[in-house]
Design a protein that fits this description.
This protein has helices at residues 13-42, 51-64, 66-69, 73-96, 213-229, 236-270, 281-285, 300-309; strands spanning 3-10, 113-116, 123-125, 135-139, 143-148, 156-165, 168-176, 189-193, 200-202, 207-208, 274-278. The chain is an alpha+beta fold. The chain has three domains: 3-13 and 115-176, no CATH class; 18-110; 189-309, no CATH class. It has a seven-stranded antiparallel sheet with strand order 2-6-7-1-5-4-3. Strands 10-9-8-11 form a four-stranded mixed sheet, with no helix packed on it. Helix 5 runs antiparallel to helix 6 and helix 6 crosses helix 8.
Length: 323
């Protein structure tokens, strides 16, 4: 079983600056590789450059460019693979007759993730296991970064990613061989229809009201959006106003996700039932086959099992960014 774990990073001021430089250098590598592919295809020879060709050039690039040489070679290869997947999707959509969507150059606000394909190659999870209360992740070019770990990591860590959301930094661990913890079968099934008028409706006639997190933040969000609309494009004031809008929107998104988890846990703990998310209860009543809906409640049982493992490991009050 594979599972991803996301934890908040608590970098120092210097480490936060290094994170930003790391993203800029990887974004520059991505854009340079994209420009090389464009120029090669526009040449009369119509040369097609692949991942292997550009990966071999990175070694020579690291010799002459000290900015690129300080980062992990594996993370730079992962950035080139990201471009390779973008071109593979472009050719696949073009062949299928859909909207091709040619890969674009990444601006400063459109490149926020760096990945290390293997734990131990340029990165190391739990790099200081002897520390009694803290967990650290070591990243090449940055050092040992504190991690706000709120639950145990099961299985074997395969890949490590660092993601930026506003002023916050997160580490994402992709683990293999995670032991499954199935719940005992009850033999009872309840249909759940996720709608618009209410958050969900069960086949027993119970209704769950919609969350009010957006209503509570609507005034501040509207004021921040109006302030953003009055700024000039490319100005410092606009960048700050956009950051305020993003901070409020991300907080609402986290509140919605928290409401979903708490609702699933409360209904799962009320009585031993299996929840099945359906696109509509009318089809179930007519006897038609039910198709699972693409909603977050599909992870009710997995979240129930993770809830037993959730524990707070840290007691120190380190102030983390609130953006």
């Amino acid at each position: 079983m594979r599972r991803a774990y996301t934890f908040l990073l608590c970098p120092t001021v210097r480490q936060a600056v290094a994170f930003g430089m790391m993203l800029d250098d990887h974004r520059a590598l991505y854009n340079a590789a994209l420009q090389e592919r464009r120029d090669a295809y526009r040449h009369p020879s119509k040369t097609r450059i692949r991942y292997g060709d550009q990966s071999a050039q990175v070694k020579d690039l690291r010799v002459g460019d000290h900015d690129q040489a300080r980062w992990s070679f594996s993370s730079q290869q992962a950035t080139l693979r990201r471009l390779e997947r973008a071109f593979a999707g472009f050719f696949r959509r073009a062949k299928a007759g859909g909207v091709p969507g040619y890969p674009r150059f990444k601006g400063a606000g459109w490149f926020g993730t760096v990945q290390w394909p293997s734990d131990g190659d340029g990165c190391r999870w739990d790099s200081q296991p002897e520390h009694p209360t803290r967990t650290f992740v070591r990243l090449q070019g940055i050092g040992h970064v504190k991690v706000h770990q709120d639950r145990r990591v099961l299985g074997k860590v395969r890949t490590v990613s660092v993601k930026r959301e506003g002023r916050r930094w997160y580490v994402i661990l992709f683990c293999d061989d995670v032991p499954a913890q199935p719940l005992p079968p009850t033999g009872v099934v309840v249909g759940v229809d996720v709608g618009i008028a209410s958050f969900l409706t069960t086949s027993n006639g119970e209704h769950e009201p919609n969350p009010t997190c957006l209503d509570r933040s609507a005034g501040r969000l509207a004021a921040a959006q109006r302030a953003l609309s009055r700024t000039k494009r490319g100005s410092v004031r606009r960048r700050k106003a956009a950051a305020r809008v993003g901070t409020i929107s991300r907080r609402v998104a986290r509140q919605r996700l928290d409401h979903t988890h708490k609702t699933a846990r409360r209904r799962r703990g009320r009585r031993p039932l299996y929840l099945l998310a359906l696109r509509g209860l009318r089809a179930c009543r007519r006897g038609e086959p039910a198709h699972p809906g693409r909603v977050r409640l599909r992870a009710v049982r997995a979240y129930r099992g993770r809830g037993r493992e959730r524990r707070r490991q840290h007691s120190s009050g380190r102030a983390c960014p609130s953006g």
